[in-house]
Design a protein that fits this description.
15% strand
Length: 523
């Protein structure tokens, strides 16, 4: 009898040990970001926290607006920290050039062959580590911080004509007589150097020294020299070598692809204006091409017409026309009671591309409504269409991962992940809608009245931040209140007891803000 009890008890213990969920170990990633702005540092860190991943960034060595990064120290950081990381993500524009802005200057490509050799040696020495490299092709416009800017119209026109000639298979046009030869060569050499970098990185990836290469494209148009490079590298794209339009959202997409590493639930796409899917500002391809390229990269299938649900589930609403805000409002109203009847599988994300460099401020009131706030799981509306779409798709991926795996996290990691979800959504509303849509114009007006240049604050940055904080204070309380209360993510319920925030300027300009949020939860 006792022997039988003993055997049964032993069997039960084994079964419990086998089936009882164990806590997921934290994954550590080292990141050399595209630049030091929140989009390339803060946003990836917050999203990663939703998936129990820690990202370490060498902050003190990064660029700061017009000050390039300390590249020698970045290399030293990489070599000294590599053993602590499970994965390393390297943005070459930071490591080779000093940052995204610096990479628009011809001088930043000096000794590029030597830097490529250093990267090859590093990858070879650490072949046991997963190494992902991101490189961003140059934008069409020359840098406003160089002499090239004085010839921007002629340089852009020439670049577009060269690309058109290549597409037609005819001889390129003669260089514009209005542009000095030295200026023209500086402009062209940026693209030649970028192509050299890209081709070498493709070679290293094909040899297995780089585990994954993602090639992006900075601000572009339908025609341009970077478009020509993209066409030339397309034959080399495969499961390890990828191209995605955009720049600032790429690290978030890389994390979504490599942390989640699985096909995500298919999504349904709705447009405010079905007839407005052409070329958007700063994009080299039409809207649907930009969208589908990003979806394919992070393994998000598109629901076909026959697969669409009677009650929308996992829907992304592309708000692409400010004249069609009524379509969005009708969608929210029509589906108000039934859209989220099964919260474990339903998701609504809004990609607000109605305007460039800001969200439509009329949507701000929607997020102040607590009921609607909870029914919109994700939002983005900043900078370009690529930036906005990539950010929200990455968030969707991490949200799906969170609700599927939250029960496997430790109690401490669960709390951190849920806080990160609220934090990210709060930042999107505070920065994309409130700051870029409302506060930035007020701030710039006040700065100009004080003879402060909003594009170059210099030593008066602290003064500008104090003005910003005063402007934010008028809205802070209502926005924080809107995010307090009950939340449901999958089978998990929790409550935001308190939330506090502040707004500052990450760089010496007013183009973007950094929103710092502290979230206290229970449940």
């Amino acid at each position: 009898m006792l022997r039988g009890v003993y055997i049964f008890t032993l069997f039960l213990i084994i079964v419990l040990l086998f089936f009882w969920p164990s806590n997921m170990e934290t994954v550590n990633i080292g990141l050399i970001p595209l630049d030091s702005r929140p989009a390339n540092t803060q946003y990836p860190q917050i999203l990663a926290s939703m998936s129990n991943v820690n990202i370490e960034i060498p902050w003190v060595f990064l660029d700061d607006y017009l000050k390039p990064s300390s590249q020698e120290f970045l290399w030293g950081w990489l070599r000294s920290k590599i053993e602590e990381f499970d994965m390393v993500i390297i943005n070459t524009n930071q490591l080779f050039n000093g940052g995204l802005i610096a990479s628009r200057e011809p001088d930043s490509y000096e000794n590029i062959e030597k830097k490529l050799e250093m990267l090859e040696d590093f990858c070879r020495e650490h072949s046991e580590k997963k190494i992902i490299v991101i490189t961003v092709l140059p934008r069409l416009l020359p840098s406003q911080f160089t002499e090239l800017w004085n010839y921007q119209d002629d340089l852009v026109s020439y670049a577009q004509d060269v690309d058109k000639s290549a597409l037609l298979g005819i001889e390129p046009p003669l260089p514009p007589a209005t542009v000095p030869e030295e200026i023209l060569q500086d402009y062209l050499n940026i693209y030649k150097s970028a192509q050299l970098i890209t081709e070498k990185l493709i070679f290293l990836t094909k040899r297995g020294l780089i585990d994954e290469l993602l090639i992006g494209q900075d601000d572009a148009q339908k025609y341009g020299l970077s478009n020509k490079i993209v066409r030339e590298i397309r034959p080399y794209l495969n499961e390890h070598i990828h191209f995605v339009h955009g720049a600032d959202e790429l690290t978030m997409l890389v994390l979504a692809r490599n942390i989640i590493a699985e096909t995500l639930p298919a999504i349904e796409i709705k447009y405010a204006n079905e007839n407005n899917k052409g070329y958007y500002p700063f994009e080299a391809e039409k809207l649907e091409d930009v969208l589908l390229t990003k979806m394919n990269y992070i393994n998000i299938p598109l629901k076909e017409n026959g697969e669409r649900d009677r009650i929308p589930k996992n829907t992304h609403f592309i708000y692409n026309d400010p004249e069609k805000i009524d379509v969005l409002q009708e969608f929210l109203t029509t589906n108000n009671d039934r859209l989220f009847s099964s919260p474990d599988i339903d998701y609504l994300g809004i990609e607000d591309i109605a305007f460039t460099n800001k969200g439509d401020t009329r949507l701000y009131e929607i997020f102040l409504d607590k009921e609607l706030n909870r029914k919109i799981h994700g939002y983005a509306g900043w900078n370009t269409a690529s930036n906005t779409i990539g950010t929200e798709l990455a968030h969707y991926a991490f949200y799906q991962y969170l609700q599927k795996n939250l029960g496997k996290y430790s109690k401490e990691d669960q709390e951190k992940a849920l806080q990160s979800y609220v934090e990210f959504k709060f930042i999107r509303v505070a920065e994309d809608l409130l700051y870029q849509g409302i506060l930035r114009d007020k701030l710039n007006e006040e700065l100009k009245a004080r003879n402060i240049d909003p594009t170059n604050l210099g030593e008066r940055k602290n003064e500008a931040e104090k003005i910003l904080q005063g402007l934010y204070e008028e809205y802070r309380g209502e926005l924080e209140e809107a995010f307090k209360g009950e939340y449901i993510i999958g089978k998990f319920r929790f409550k935001v007891e308190n939330i506090s925030s502040r707004m500052e300027l990450p760089w010496g300009r007013t183009f973007e803000a950094k929103v710092l949020v502290n979230v206290e939860i229970s449940g």
